[in-house]
Structure formats: C-alpha cells, structure tokens
Amino acid sequence: MSILNLEEMSTREKFMAMEELWEDMSKNVYTKELTPQWHLDVLDEREKEVEEGKVKFESFDDVKKELADLFP
Known about the structure:
Blueprint: H1 11-26, H2 37-51, H3 60-70
C-alpha cells in the first residue's frame, strides 16, 4: 500500500518528496526509537578508538585518489 500516487507523480515531484522525507527523517536520526542499540554500541566503540588514537583518518581527497588508482 502506498500513500503516494507514484504513477501520477513526475520524476521531479518524486525527487522533491524524497528530499522532504530525508530532511525530516535526518532530524531524528539518533533517537533511540530509530537507532538500534547495536548501532549505538558500534558508534561508541569507534569513538573510543578515536580517543585512544587506535584509528587513522585519511582525507577525502586521498581516498578518492586511492580509489581512482584502483579503478582507472
């Protein structure tokens, strides 16, 4: 069952609807209602690894270059 009449919507209208939904949902992305506990646990563990200096970050430009080299 769909609450939207997708067959009658233009592509532009569909994108606008997706953007509106995404904007609204992203406001509440970290609520306990929407985020499973195991996700929160993983985020906590990763934050701990950052604080302890156990992880290495790379710039987005470096990662793009590495990927471009892998997939020329």
